[in-house]
Each structure stands twice: as C-alpha cells, then as structure tokens.
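ENTRY TYPE: protein
CONTENTS: sequence, structure tokens:
***
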Amino acid sequence: MNHLKPHVLPAALALATIFTFSCSGDDSGGGSNTSTKDACIRAELEVKANTLDDVAGACSATRSEVLSQLPSTIGTCNKNDLDFDKPLRDIMEACGVTEIPIVSSNSGNGGSSSTGGTSSGGSSSSGGSSSGGGSSSGGNSSSITIEFSSVEYEGYTYKTVKIGTQWWFAENFRYNTIGSVCYGGLDENCNKYGRLYDWATAMKLDPSYNNLAYVVDIRQGICPDGWRLPNNADWDRLSRYADGTNGTTSPYTSATAGGKLKATSGWDNDGNGTDELGFSALPSGYRNATGTFVFVGGRSYWWTASQYDNSNAYDRFIRNNNESCDYLYREKNYMLSIRCIKS
C-alpha cells in the first residue's frame, strides 16, 4: 500500500498499536492479543457492510494495510464510539478511489467484487454529456446568479442548474429500472414528477443493502457518469446557500430554503415557491413500505446517499404548507425521488 499519499492520511500506524486499545466484550480472559483485537475491530467493520474488505479491494491493498492506516483513536468495539466514515474516505481519496466495489453481502468472506452491485435493469453505461447554457439572475437578490445547462442520459435530456458552486439536476430523475415506479403506477406521473426509487436502487447496490449498512456516502449510484447521488453534506450546502446562513450542523433543516427551491406552480393549497434558484421542485410524493402512494401534490422527498443505520437512510423533503427544507431518516424500501449532483 505504498502508493497511499502520506500527506493525506494520518501517519501509518503499526498494527500492534491499533490492537492494544481496549475492546469491550473481549472474551480473551483479560489478555490482549492481536487476533482477538483484529476480530473485534473486524466485527465492527462488518456491521458497516464489509467496508474494510471493500476499501482494501478498491485500493489493491490487504486488510491489515487498511487497518494500519486507521487513526489510533479507533480501537474499541463500542459502535457508538466508532466513526469509520471519515478515515475510510481519507484512505479512499489517498488511493484515488471515489466509490468502492461491493463484495458479497455475506460478512467476512472477502468474496469477489463487482462494481456497484446490480439491482437495476437496463443499461446505465451511457454517460451524461453537458451542453452549454445561459445564465439568469435569480430571485430577490441581485447577488444570486443561476446558470442552466443540460445532460443527455438514456434518451432523455435533463435540465441542470448551477446553484452557488454546485451543479444539480433541475428536475427529478426518470431513469426506468428495476426498483423504480411511477407514482400510482401511472406513466403520466413519471412524465410530470420523475420516477420513485428504493434506496438500494438509487445507490446502485444489491437489493440486500436495503437492510445492510453501506458506509461510504459518496457514490454515483444510478446517476449518469460525472454525477452522483447527493449526500447530507451536499443538501446542507444547498439549503445554506438558499437561506444565506453558515454553519456545520448536519443534517441541517432550513426554515426558508424550501420556499426558494419549490416551483412557482403545481403545489396544492397555494403552497408554491419562488423557484429563485432554478431548482423547480415539484410535489412528487412517495410510496411507503406497504406499497401505498401518498402526498403527491403536497410534498416532495429525495433520497440522500447518507444512511442512518442498516435499514434507514436520510432523505430531504419540502412541503406545501411551509417554506422549510427538512430531513428525516426513512426505511430504505420506501420509494422516493432522486436529484443528481455533479461530482
């Protein structure tokens, strides 16, 4: 693993250092030994969907080499004290990988990898090509400028918009694949609102990941090449740009961003927005875990790439009865809309 950039990562740590940390639930009779500590840390990583083997495979490294790069503050077996996300993303960045192939969902087998898993039918190989677009002054502030462009993908041209430093799809994704539906099963709703997807499909993972953890929240998913499924941090930045605030709290609820992201028509009970950022959100509703479609006309929900736990992931939503852009975590087998963000 000598190709890892040392200035990006913490200094490489000896395995012995990693494994000398205490491990709650250690059944080794009080003695500290490498195999027990290895099993302990490994068990925690397996809770995160074989992430250790995934990262090792993506970086052409061994499991031990990846472990040796983890900060020394990671070493207990209390899940509440562990935060692998940032250190593992640092390791991935150091070896030039932005998303990882998925090994078998059976824990600990180190099986052969296949990029992204495949829960989707049809091809998603044709990358999006951007075309030049004009600019437009947005909203009630002369300091806000929005720029439009477009991306062609699978026979459809999507409008895109630059909001601050981010490029977003200016309409919901409508790629037809297994694991997606039209609201109410009606094609006309796909034409109007885009399609609804379960979380594993949106992430382009095996369907089993609707009940398994997947730690890395930077992933292309089923978005076109050069684009990806936005995570909590991406949505936080969008909301803070919209409401003009700063902060680091994540996930972030904005009391006013929703009003600026909603389209100027299409929302029930005069719940329309100003659409001053060109995001043009429409109330696409969702399908819940029992297969019931609800909230079309009144609410819009989008998956993020950030999960809450094995069976729940974060979403962002906007309602017709207020101006907020809010978040919740929801069962991954719900079917929500998707917006892609440029990588």
